[in-house]
Amino acid sequence: MTTPITSLDLTGFTAHEPGVWTDAAGLVLSVHFFPLVPDLPAPLHEPERLRTGLAHGVARAGGGLVEAETGAVDGLPAVRQLIKVPRPNGPGQVFLGSWTVPRAGCSTVLKVQAAEGSATGMREAMVMAQVGPAEYFRPHPYADGGQLGGLPYHVADHEHWDAQFPDHPLTLVRAALHRLTPTVTLDERFKAQPPFTGPPTAPAQGPDPRRGFRRKDA
To answer: What's the predicted TM-score (pTM) here?
Structure first.
């Protein structure tokens, strides 16, 4: 089983290598299969503990968890994450959106990412100018009223700003996930696997947000 994702609407994407596609806007779409017990820090039916563990794991890796929500992909329980990480070998950030569909002994991941280009920080600066510095930085919603380290949490990453910045990589990643998710079909053998019920021992440190990361500097 190369990947349990057997069908996906690839309109606008061009094959780059097996399991990886790109589009004209700079998005990189990839699909992954991991034949291991998922490294999620909590079961999906404990969303608060799951989000907290994910946020801490991303922060320890130097990034920032923008949001994490549970949902479904082709009828299976899944967790959606939006993450920002420092852009390698250059200024700015890379934004990664993913669905992780965990089963008891394996998982599949659909990932979309895009990097900032030469102009960085414009969205952040314009939002700060509109809301003011005092309202810009907020406690991380998954950190019990504080920040976590890594990249800071702030309101410019919220979805309601996407319409004002239609070409920003975060907007593009978020929109791509919204469009692609309903088109995913999963292999029936994967769907028949026992469900993921949580980490086998103590909660893990959270998945590495760069797992499956594809460099495509703009």
So the answer is: 0.89
